[in-house]
Amino acid sequence: MIDGALADGRGFSAAERLAYARDGYVVRVGEFTAAELEVLRALVERVLAGVVERAERPEARPPMAMADGHRMQFSSRAAIQWEWADGSREVRLIEPFTHLHPRFAVLWDDERLRAPMCDALGVDAVAPYTSKLNLKRPRDGSRFPWHQDFTYWYAFSPATAHEIATVMLFLDAADANNGAVRVLAGSHRQGPAARDPADPTRFLADPTRLDTSTERIVAVPAGSLLMFPALMVHRSSPNASARQRRAILLSFQPAGRRPQRELAWRPERVDELP
Fold this sequence. Notes:
The N terminus is likely disordered.
């Protein structure tokens, strides 16, 4: 359990509270210093190299094909999603990842991350749900279509999937050319989005039934935070640039609940959704 967040002054301001309720997201710029980011970026690359080395051992469990044909592999007590391009050995995502190094683990207690999550969830204390290391390598980082995190959380915890919020720490500057996140402002107030019947995974939102007129590109400098709830509809661009776009995502839930790693993955549950 992580508590005491509301008393440390890092919670939402009145303007942020209004924006979060209205638009479904809050951005804070310059929350992490250049020195902190340098340490985190170097650590990400060092830890990632070790994860890839373990995953590529002859005795390691081989990758499996997901419903959409993309590759996932379990190694280092994490799920590794490999990049979508045929033959690519780049990693696009690792979940969870904070157990891979103590410097990552202490981020759960960083008041810059946990305090606003208390306000986002409307609780006095929060606990970890899951963590992700998201990578969009130069010219190799693929897009991710419109979706809600809610749908994925629903397969683990249907009764509380809507009571999870995420804070995203950008280790690199993000813009439209290198894989920026794009949100549909206000979409979190419309409940579960209709799922795409053409999506073999059954988790993506149906783009033909979305009002994309509210789309906003979250272009931010390195060290910025993006905070959003489980029901926010969002996507990300491919990285068409020569620059990195790496990010750390921590998903919080009210204190006293089990983390995702202790819950059963039951993807058939999403058939209960629209």
